[in-house]
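Bug #77: duplicate submission created two jobs. Keeping one. Sequence:
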Amino acid sequence: MEAAFAELVARYGPEGRSGVDPAARFLIAVADGTAVACGALQPVDAVTAEVKRMYVRPSHRGLGAARALLKALESMAADAGYARVRLTTGIRQPEAIALYESSGYARIPAYRKYADEPASRSYGKDVVR
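Kept job's structure:
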């Protein structure tokens, strides 16, 4: 998480560092005994969960870890009974935008603290069991 926060702060400044709900559930991808990627699923309401803190170490980018992790988070959401997943990323993360759009996420109106943040992009996707 420290590496993820450091990258966000480098791209967006100190406001890039924000917390995650204690109810969030994390998944960690491990290769050769080393954590190489992480992501969390945070409850929003009875039908919606939010993907948070997607991160892949630079040495493992482009190898499919992010896509596999995103699919696993979507499956976790569906298994928990959520019908929809949403997320927000920033315009300074074109690789994340490309991942989400190629994974079937569609732009949605910005929400919560992102509503007045022009550097953010919010996405949503229906998930099924």
